[in-house]
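Weekly sync notes, structure subgroup
Attendees: PM, AL, DS (notes)

Item 1: joint prediction request from the bench team. They want all two components modeled as one assembly rather than separately. Inputs as received:
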Amino acid sequence: MHVTSPAFKENSARALANPGLQKALGTAKGAFLQRRAAAVANLPEFERLRDIGRDIKNHTLANLDFYLEAFEQKVLAAGGKVHWCSSADDARAVVLKICKAAGAKTVTKGKSMISEELGINHHLEAHGIQPVETDLGEYILQLRGEAPSHIIAPAFHLNREDWEADFRRLHTDLPADRVFHERRDILAEARTRLRDRFLAADVGITGANFLIAETGSSVIVTNEGNGDLTQTLPRVHIALASIEKVVPTLEDATSLLRLLARSATGQDFSVYTTFSTAARREADLDGPEEYHVVLVDSGRSNMIGTEFQEMLRCIRCAACMNHCPVYGAVGGHAYGWVYPGPMGSVLTPSLVGIDKTGMLPNASTFCGRCEAVCPVKIPLPKMMRHWREREFERHLTPAAARSNLALWAWFAKRPGLYRLATRAATGVLGLLGRGKGAFTSLPLAGGWTAGRDLPVPEGGTFMAQYAKTRRRR
Amino acid sequence: MTKDAILGAIRRGLKRGPLPADQQAMLAGRLATHPRHLIPARSRLPRPEQVALFIRNVEKEFGTVERVPDHAAIPAAMGEYLAAQNLPSRFVMAPHPELTAVPWADRPLLAFEQRRAEATDQVSLQHGYAAVAETGTLMLPSAPERPTTLNLLVETEVVVLRASRVVGAYEEAWDLLRAESRDARSGGFMPRNIMFVTGPSRSADIEQTLELGAHGPRRLHVILVDDDPAALPMGDVAVPPPVAVPGGPPAPGD
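Output from the run, pasted for the record:
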């Protein structure tokens, strides 16, 4: 996928000025949050489960080579195939080869972020194979030629009227004046359209939420049932998974599943949680005849042993972006690549390079909500700070920011001067704004005051107040 | 080779070579013993309450449940459910011996075929392997007698489940499968596919609002056969149930 992260500022400005997007973000605001809060409140053990989830993932990462090999052995024993792919190029080539060998004309797809990352659809199309996205959100995005803006709700940026307009525009064999009374009617139309595609597909491609080393299974979690139709009806099933998806046992996966749906949509459990282990058995009446796992590294192994290793614990629930004030203001497309929000601001620099994505770890207020809700306790703000340090060390930080930082550092190393300067600034601003409460505009601070007010300082600097309190004690 | 390159990169990151034999043996032991983690207390209940929790959770997720005393009551329950929903009395049924043995002749107007489901089928009758009370989840492992398509292609799925097969937590369901299932292909216990189903199909993709009836069934109905005297609702039992230990009875192996 093309990276537009360097243009994060421009992307954000456009997003803030886009009334449709702002409406969609406004509608969505709170829905996932409230449901997550209710689900968590209903499970008193949730906090302890977060520690368990973190520990399971840490244990797996510390022994990742062992568990990947154990997983492979089990897949082979059950009659499946495992394809190891170092790069996105390798993975695209393997998927195409399997599809060609199957003589595939159309390929149905379950929602998969690794597929977005690898650009599978584009690659298949370029070779004359038609991919069909079957997740409702992915389906409309394929019609619109857009990328997902959220990792579990791909069409997060769309309003109901967008759905209706697109369906009218593209499903031209249906009466143009048909009425969508409810959201359900939109859903029903997509269901009818996709039914024939499910039946006609030669290959089904899904992602994987987990791989189980104990049994050689791939696990998908969905609400619609599209992922299951995708991996059940076609003759060939391909499960795409990055290497950090493996966990040791069914019990380990079970503990993580208790966290996943609650953190994501606020459901206790998703509607369909499905464990696939190789192809159809001899007497089975349905199921695919071939089962392939495409194991993708594509930058993950480079994160191991670095300060970003903990990011590989991520189970892709999207709680961090659902709770992020920056994501809530600009939506997912502004981030400029596959993974938006706080998890993307840490992962994207690891996978595509900090030189192109330096804006992302800076697009944070460090409010800490992402870390507070992460089901596997990934220290996202800390890792964004690490990226800022690396960016600074590599002289990638913009010149204006660097010189301002240098100026600040010069003062910060001279506490006496620093206090004098802040006292003077506080005094001047306090005098200028006396009786106002807040500045709505201020010379040199237009960037700040364009979007919000600057409170007028009162009561002296922090250090002055601190000293006063200490004297009082 | 790509595999070696990936494993090599992982090991370089971990600052070690391949794991020494004793550590490999330890990890293999963890896989073989698959230790349980924390199991939420909510499902640690006396049997009658456990089954009641299962029913409440199915209903919370927009499924429906009818309790019947035995397998002989299934034809009437099925017939009445289909009539109440205005559905045809024709359905595709899992070729499971337990369902074949149901006295269907009692309800001659019901017509069924035992096979996998096709896109034209409207209603399926599936065999429930087990269920998890913790979240009202049905466990449906694939098998020649339990085709996966019955869970997917129809608009209405009806599942026959014996109350004795309702367990508290997922871990107990895994143990049932480990004890009872043998897969000839892999030598393991996992069939091709296991679907855990919690309520009918839905989507939240339009404005983050959950709507029922996405690609899978729009309706999920459970016919719960009370084959377990210990699991009957309190008051229905002649013998008083055992007094509940505070916190509920311990789950095996925990």
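Discussion: DSSP finds 24 helices and twelve strands in chain A.
Action: AL to compare against the crosslinking data before next sync.
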